[in-house]
């Protein structure tokens, strides 16, 4: 049995699942090319620092752990 295709209005109204700390977060680019966000940049950076692993900084973390021992 084929799946029912979503209509254009269903696609627009459906919201993606998000982390509870980012609830209500929306980001857009206005007519002038400026990024407009519903959350403060500092709060977004705190979230990213807490939950996202930075691949470029992995080697620094491993060196600092070795030097502490």
Tell me about this structure.
There is one protein chain. A two-stranded antiparallel ribbon has the order 1-2. The mean pLDDT is 81. The protein is built from three helices and two strands; from the N terminus they run αββαα. It has one domain. With 69 residues, the chain is mainly alpha-helical. 0% of the residues are buried. The chain is extended.
Write the layout of secondary structure elements.
Elements: H1 8-13, E1 27-29, E2 35-37, H2 41-51, H3 58-68
Antiparallel strand pairs: 1-2
Record keyword descriptors for this entry:
3 helices; 69 residues; mainly alpha; single chain; 9% strand; 41% helix
Shape: extended
Quantity of strands, as a count: 2
Distance between the terminal alpha carbons, to the nearest Å? 61 Å
How would a crystallographer describe the biggest sheet?
2 strands, antiparallel
Amount of helix: 40-55%
Q: Which H/E pattern describes the elements?
A: HEEHH
Radius of gyration: 20 Å
Domains, number = 1
Would you identify the regions where 5 or more consecutive residues have pLDDT less than 50? none
- The total count of helices amounts to 3
Average pLDDT: 81
Q: Which strand-content bin applies to the residues?
A: 5-15%
Structural class: mainly alpha
Major sheet: arrangement of strands = 1-2
């Amino acid at each position: 049995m084929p799946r029912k295709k979503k209509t254009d209005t269903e696609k627009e109204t459906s919201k993606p699942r998000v982390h509870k700390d980012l609830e209500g977060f929306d980001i857009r680019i206005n007519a002038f090319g400026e990024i407009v966000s519903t959350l403060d940049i500092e709060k977004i950076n705190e979230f990213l620092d807490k939950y996202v692993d930075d691949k470029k900084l992995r080697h620094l973390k491993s060196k600092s752990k070795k030097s502490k021992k």
